[in-house]
Amino acid sequence: MALLQMFSYPFMQRAFLAGAMLAVLLAGLGIFVTLRRMAFFGDGIAHSSLAGIAIAVLAGLAPLPVALVWAVIVALFIFWFERSTKLASDTLIGIFFTASMALGVVLMSFTHGYQPELVSYLFGSILSIQAGDLAIIACLTLAIGGWLIAASRSLIYMSLAPEPAEVAGVPVNRNTLILYVGLAAATVLGVKILGIILISALLVLPSAAGLMLTSSFRGYLFLSLLIAEVMMFAGLALSFLYDLPSGATVILLGTALFFLAAAARAVSGRAALAAARR
């Protein structure tokens, strides 16, 4: 009864719609994050967005669009420096992540009193999802998700073998640039529900759990998306029923699913080894 009552609230309807879209988008991007070992990218972009949020609050603007623009600019700088210098991407992410965080903290010091927008972006808040936010999430999910589907073969090839992919004519630089921008946008969108502190986990946990349960790419894709949706829907439901922080509940549930996947892999591995010895 309580579960049905939950969907009678407009803010929960918006949260579930946003969560469903973001779970698919972040899990899809997370597959390539895992393959390319870019887990730190999502975390760095999420923390970098704090400067954009602080700028929006000081200027009296909507935080989400400003944070999106700021995150995309940071992603573009990382891409450019990665190719024009000898610095590794994780080094560049660390530089821009800390610089943007520092700028955000300085700008926040100029605000007076309690700032609920800043707090909601740090820890996530389902109550803060508005119709305008939902429209932005829907548009970007369609755009980035459509590109992921269209470029999936090229992305898989360049993620597993970047140099042969470039020789074969795959536009590695262009695809990498779009991937960075898509990751930046999706990460900032996810910050609205999960918060800056937790968002990178939704990029990593579903794909990591899915990778443990299958050896085929199709199975990997399907399981990653399924696990992400289960994380989001069950996590939001539990947070509503037991008055728990939504972002933290989603991530803890995802972590539990990851450990279950690891246990299932260990059991199946032992069973296969025992069968081979017979």
Summarize, please:
The chain has 13 helices and no strands.
Task: Please describe what this structure looks like.
With 278 residues, this protein is an all-alpha fold. 84% of the residues lie in helices and 0% in strands. The chain has one domain (2-269): ABC transporter involved in vitamin B12 uptake, BtuC (Orthogonal Bundle), CATH 1.10.3470.10. It is globular and about 70 Å long. The mean pLDDT is 86.
Order of helical and strand elements? HHHHHHHHHHHHH
Q: Report the strand count.
A: 0
Question: Average pLDDT, to the nearest integer?
Answer: 86
Helicity level? over 70%
Query: Please, how many domains?
Result: 1
Rg, Å, rounded: 19 Å
Q: Helix tally?
A: 13
Low-pLDDT regions: none
* Biggest beta sheet attributes: none
Under the CATH scheme, the architecture is Orthogonal Bundle
Beta-strand content estimate: under 5%
CATH superfamily: ABC transporter involved in vitamin B12 uptake, BtuC
CATH topology: ABC transporter involved in vitamin B12 uptake, BtuC
Q: Shape, please?
A: globular
SS-derived structural category: mainly alpha
| Spatial gap, N to C terminus | 52 Å
Question: What is the level 1 CATH name?
Answer: Mainly Alpha
